[in-house]
Structures are given as structure tokens and as C-alpha cells.
Amino acid sequence: MAVPAEELLPGTRRALLHRLAVGQAQGRTPSLVGAVVRGGRLVWAEGRSMIDGHSPDADVQYRIGSITKTFVAVQVMRLRDEGALDLADPLARHLPDLAATPTAEAAAAAATATATAAGLGAGAGATGGAGALTIAHLLGHTAGLASEPPGPWWERTPGTLRPRLGDVLDEPPLRHPPGRRFHYSNPGFALLGALVSRLRGQPWGDTLHQELLAPLGLSRTTLLPQAPHAGGFAVHPWADVMLPEPLQDTGVMAPAGQLWSTAADLARWAVFLTRGDKDILSADTLAEMRQPTSGPDKADGWTTATGLGLQLRRHDGRLLYGHAGSMPGFLAGVWVSRSDDVAAVVLANATAGPAVAQIAADLIRIVAEHEPRIPEPWRPVSAVDPELLALTGLWHWGPAPHLMYLRADGGLELIPQGQTGRGSRFRAEPDGTWTGLDGYYAGETLRVVRAADGTAAHLDIGTFVFTRTPYDPGVDIPGGIDPDPWQAY
Fold first, then answer.
1. What are phi and psi of 41, to 5 degrees?
2. What is the SS3 assignment for 242?
């Protein structure tokens, strides 16, 4: 696919090509393709190959492995938004045949043993078979399922060895108590693919094509390879020799890592993961998928986390989301920086070697540093509600000052002004309350408590009282206020 040369400055393109070339050479991979998206458009794509004069372009297929999971997750969230399921639903509600596959007794025994070994006490993990796991557990890899299905190495053997969905589960299936910790599980996404198939009434791949691939124009994303495509290889760790890797149809495990795609198609997918599509999945739901499902809140200093089918990581001070992928003979990565409005795709046809996630992060960094995003011009709002304007300015949680700011989109933002405090953005609700969108107050309710004359007397945020002056004596504050406050000692 030809990319207009004027999209990026020559120095930027040279730096990107250099990083890709270093990645191919140091990673000792037969070929490496990189692509960059900026402003919702593919602006750069290059390839490097061991064959002189024959570098792959953005239209050559590579196997993308676990990036497949991002497609499955979007399918599941579509079903959630349609009301066909709830993320808190037990899997058995939609796949009842899994309720005893393997037996609930065996699963409970394993979970109890795991919990006891971890010092959690008998019965802490005894929650039944795989059917008792929730959809949210599976999406966020917190179900406690085994990482891999039983039997021979599933990525290198035909799917006919696992003809039934129950064949992807070990007996007992649990390695950890559900909901207690992150534990990556390929079988978990095989179950989610089966869930999509059951609720849509057709094979998972058919639904994928109809609902996502065709509407988004991902014509080169397929379950099986279509020419032109790369062959997969293993490169010897101590010698410059190669070994072809087998290319298998993984059958019921396909939703965990079956797909083949191109840099151009994945660039379009990255745009969708950034902006959403009103006919497929809203930007709000995609934002929900980017929130960590386990571990610390995004305001804390974590470096890696998992959302609902998406991976999150921090590189060079910026937050990236997307997914890595690997199958025998292939490595892949698609990563997005929303703050820079830049995404990168990297594809390689080697089992191990090139650090595709680091390369993708570096491609994003190069564009962001060479050509930083130009912010939209500041513009005043065209109209403002006087009552909202009256809420702006300083408020105090006890003695801690906070600034309430009215955003251009009509939302409120609470910004700590001292060395301590908790900030959040808030969205207006029809009943006059506000709902926290992030930070400590995410999901909490802000209520404006008004005086007899209608003015805002104080704010109640999840029972915490914010007043215009520190511990305003005119406000009924829980616990009361000393009748002679702010004395000198």
C-alpha cells in the first residue's frame, strides 16, 4: 500500500526507518513490517527483509496471534451494549453445557486447594466449574483458568485434536480462585468466542466477518492465510539459520489467536480502537475497555495492566493500549497513544527475537517527539448555564482546597490545589446529580446541596462534604465543628 510521502517530515520518516531496520537486524527476523497512524490515517509504512530488494509492504499478511482477542472482546461488548448479556453473568447462563465440564466438584476442589495453599482459608476459591466464571472474569484474565488447554501444544497442533469446546479446559480447570488475580488464559477466550457464536447463532468467524471485518473494511484480515502472506520461521538462537514453523488451524481455540492480518488492516483497527464507530461500538464503551480490570487504578503508578480484552502499558511516560500477539513463526503488536493521537503496528515472521512491543512504542515516540501533536485552538463555549458557572472556583474538603472547573463539554472537573487531594471529572445526569468518571470518585455521585435562596451551599461527593471555606461553620458537617475554630496554639 502506497503512503503519501508528504504525510510525515523527511527526518521523521528517516528515524522511523532506522528504528525498523535496527529492529529487524538485532531481532534477527526474516522480515519486519512497521506502520504508523496519526490523526486517524495511515501515514507511514515500511518493511525490512532478509531478501534484498524484496521488502514486504503493508498489504502482506502475517499471523497476529493474540491480537485476535481484541476482536473477540469487541464482539462481546457489542452483545453487552445490545442487552444480550451482562458482564457479571455466569458463563453457564449462556453456555449451560459448560456448567459441568469439567465437573463442578473437581473444579471446586482445585480452587479450594489453591486458596488454602495461598493462605486464603478452606472454601475461599470453591466457586464451581468453568460455567460459574463471569464474562468479566474471562475478558480481564481474572477467571483463574489455566493459561493453556490440555493436550499437546495447541499452537503447533491441529484443532481436530480438540473437537469440542470442553476439550479446551483442563480438569480441574482452575489454577487460581476466580477474581483474585490476573492470570492470562487462552482457553478463556476460546470460551468467549463460543459465547459469541452461541448468542449470534452462527460460527464465530462468520459473525466476526459480518459485524467487524466487512464494516470496517478489513478485507485482508482472515482466519486462514491468503496470498500474499509471510511464512513463519524459528531462528536458531546461536546460529544464523532458520527452521519453518507449522501453520495450523486451531479449531475451537481460534478466538485466542487464529487471525491473519496486514499492517494496513491493523492500522484501521487501531483507528477504530481509538475513536469507535457508532454502528459498531461507541467510544464510551471502548473507553470502558481501556480501564484496568485488576490491580491499581489508572491514577497510580502502574506500568502494565489489562482491561476488557485490551492490554495497557506505560512507555516513556505515555500510556499505550492495544495488544501483543504471538504464534509459532510470528510476532505482532498494535499499540495506541491517545494523548499523541498516534498508533503503531509491528509485524514479524519469527517465533522469537524482535521486541515488537518496544519497537511499536519507539515508533510512537519518534513521531510524538519529531512532530508533536498540535493542540486544537482554545475556544470559549457558545452558551453557559449560570448555575453551572456558579459552581466553579474554590471548594474545600475540610482544609484541603480544590478547584471546580467547568469544561467546554459541559462537564465539571475537580482539581486538587494543594499537595494532597482527590481529583475527578464528572458527567451531568438527568436528575441533577453528577457521576464521577475517573480517579477516586469514579462512579460516585456528586450532589449540589442548595441553601434556601437556591445558591449552592455545599457539595456532597459520596458523603464527603465540600464547602466554600475550610469547614464552613454555616454548613452542617458530619461530626460537627468546634464552636471556636481556627485558634492559635
1. -135, 145
2. strand
Q: Residue 354: helix, strand or coil by DSSP?
A: coil
CA distances from 50 to 30, 246, 372, 426 (A): 5, 20, 33, 53
Cell of 327: 504464534
CB 341 within 8 A of CB 39: yes
> What b-and-e string marks burial along 380-394, b requiring 16 or more CB atoms within 10 Å of the CB?
eeeeeeeebeebeee
Cβ neighbours, 10 Å, residue 201:
8
Q: Where are the alpha helices (DSSP H) in 118-226?
A: 135-139, 186-200, 204-208, 214-216
Please give the angle made by the CA atoms of 203, 208 and 213, to the nearest 5 degrees. Answer: 150
pTM of the complete model:
0.85
Any idea what DSSP says for residue 219? T
Residue 467: CB atoms within 10 A of its CB come to 19
Express each pLDDT in 35-75 by its tens digit: 999 999 999 999 999 998 788 999 999 999 999 999 999 99
pLDDT at 120: 26
Let me know the angle formed at the C-alpha of 411 by 410 and 414, rounded to the nearest 5 degrees.
140
Report the alpha-carbon distance of residue 393 to residue 390 in Å, rounded: 8
CA distances from 296 to 300, 306, 388 (A): 6, 11, 32
CA pair distance 43, 36, nearest whole angstrom: 6
Residues of the chain with pLDDT under 70: 1-6, 99-129, 131, 295-302
Cell of 32: 519486519
- Cα-Cα-Cα-Cα dihedral sign, residues 454, 459, 463, 469: negative
Give 11's Cβ-side CA count (13 Å radius): 5
Query: How far apart are alpha carbons 344 and 355 in whole angstroms?
Result: 14
Q: What does the alpha-carbon distance between residue 248 and residue 257 come to, in Å, rounded to a whole number?
A: 11
pLDDT at residue 398, as a whole number = 92
The pLDDT of residue 316 is: 86
DSSP letters spanning 375-394: PPPP---S---HHHHTT-EE
Alpha carbons 353 and 148: distance in angstroms, whole number:
22
Measure Cα distances from 173 to 98, 111, 168 in Å: 11, 9, 9
Angle between helices 10-27 and 356-370 (to 10 degrees): 160
The runs of H, that is alpha helices, within 322-426 are: 356-370, 386-389
Q: Determine the pLDDT at residue 114.
A: 30
Measured distance CA(224)–CA(229) in Å, rounded: 10
